[in-house]
Amino acid sequence: MAPPVSQSMRDGCVDRHDDWLRRCGPGCNLILLKTDRQKNLGILHRLLHVMLAASLVVQTVNAIGQEEPSGGQNGSHQQTPYQNMTPDQRAEATRKFLGLGAEPDKVAAARGAPLFQQNCGFCHGQQARGATGPSLITSDEVLTDDHGERLTPFLKKGRPEKGMPAFATMPDDQLKDISEFLHLQIEEIANRGTYHVLNILVGNAAKGQAYVTTHCMSCHTTETFAHIGSSFHSPEQLQRGWIWPMRREDSSPAITATVKTPDGVTVAGRVMQVSDFRITLVDHKGKTHVIDRVPGVNVQIKDPRAAHEAMIMSLRNDDMHDVTAYLATLK
Predict the structure, then answer these.
(1) How many angstroms separate the CA atoms of 77 and 88, rounded?
(2) Digit-coded pLDDT (tens) for 256-295
C-alpha cells in the first residue's frame, strides 16, 4: 500500500530552481474543495504519485540521489548514488520513493494478461488504460492492493450497480494473476527506474574532440577531461554528466550570489534557495542569511553552469554523441 503523501508535499510547490526541491511559503498552498474533503485528498494522493513518476522523474532522481563519479570520498561508506545503481536497484529505489507498493510478480502478470484482456479489456482497455470504462492505472482499488488481497474479493463481488459484473466463479488464483497484471501496468508507467538504456557510443570521436576544442576549452582545461571516461559508471551517465554537471556541496559548480540591501549591507555566499520573493545564502563562515527580495534589494547571481544551459539550447544530437564517444576514450 502506498504511504500517505506528506503535508509538505500537499502544501508545497516545487521551487523554480532546478537543484533543490524546496517549498515556498504558505501562499502557495493547494486549495482543496471543502465538500467531501477526504475524497479530494485521496484523489490528490494518487495523482501526486503518478505525476511524480510520469512528469517529474528528474526531481525523483534528485531526491533519491544524484549521480557521482565512482570511487566515493575518503573511503567512507556511502549509499550508492541513484544513477550508479544497477537497473534492478534503480527500479527498487524508485518504487520505494514513489510508494508504488510491492514489486509485481511478472510471471503471475503474464498469466493474468490474457485473463484480463478476455474478461475486462473490452471495457478497461487491453492494457487497463481505459476504453468504454475508466483507466485502472489510478484506480484506488488497485493502488491500495499489493498481491490481490483486496482486489480478489472486490472482483468476486463486482459493482453490478455501476455496470461491472461479478467474477464469483473465477478461481482465486486467476483473480490474483489479474491483480498482478494490473500492478505491472502501473509499474511500467510509473517506475522510470526500470528503463534500460542501450549502447549510446555511436558517435565519431574525432568530431567530438573538435567540438570540445571549439566550444569547451574557453572555460575548461585539459585536466578537466583527464580520465573522465573512467569516472562514470556507464556511457549514459558520462553523457549526462558532461552535458549537465551535477552540483556538489563543496565544489565549484555551486551557484553563488552577491546581495546588496537598501541600507548598504552586502552579503555574498552560496545560494541555497532562490525565488521571486526571497533568497537564502550561506556565507564563507557557514552562516545562513534569508533575505526578502523587496524593492531596493539588488541580487547578482553567478551560475557556473550557465554556459551549459546555453549550450543545451543549440546542442545537436550528432554533436552530443560525438562528444560522448570522444570523452569515453579518455580513460
Answers:
(1) 21
(2) 999 999 999 999 999 999 999 999 999 999 999 999 999 9
What is the pLDDT, as a whole number, of residue 198?
77
What CATH class is the domain 1-70+81-196?
A: mainly alpha
- The single-letter code of the amino acid at 135 is S
Nearest CA to 151 out of 116, 121, 107, 123 is that of 116
The DSSP annotation for 167-185 comes to -TTS-HHHHHHHHHHHHHH
CB count in 10 Å sphere of residue 251: 10
Under 8 Å between Cβ of 274 and 291:
no
Q: Dig out the grid coordinates for 241 from the structure.
A: 554528466
SS3 300: strand
Within 8 A by CB and 6+ apart from 8, the residues are 23
CA proximity to 166, closest of 177, 158, 174, 176: 158
Helices (H), 12-86: 37-54, 57-64
Cell numbers at 153, concatenated: 474479493
Measured distance CA(224)–CA(210) in Å, rounded: 16
199-256 pLDDT, tens per residue? 889 999 999 999 999 999 988 999 989 999 998 888 988 998 899 887 665 556 788 9
256-260 β-sheet, strand order:
288-292, 278-282, 266-274, 256-260, 298-302
Q: Where are the alpha helices (DSSP H) in 80-139?
A: 87-98, 106-119, 121-124
CA 132 to each of CA 120, 163, 175: distance values in angstroms, whole numbers, following the listed order: 11, 11, 22
292: CB partners within 8 A, 6+ apart:
277, 278
pLDDT above 60 (res 55): no
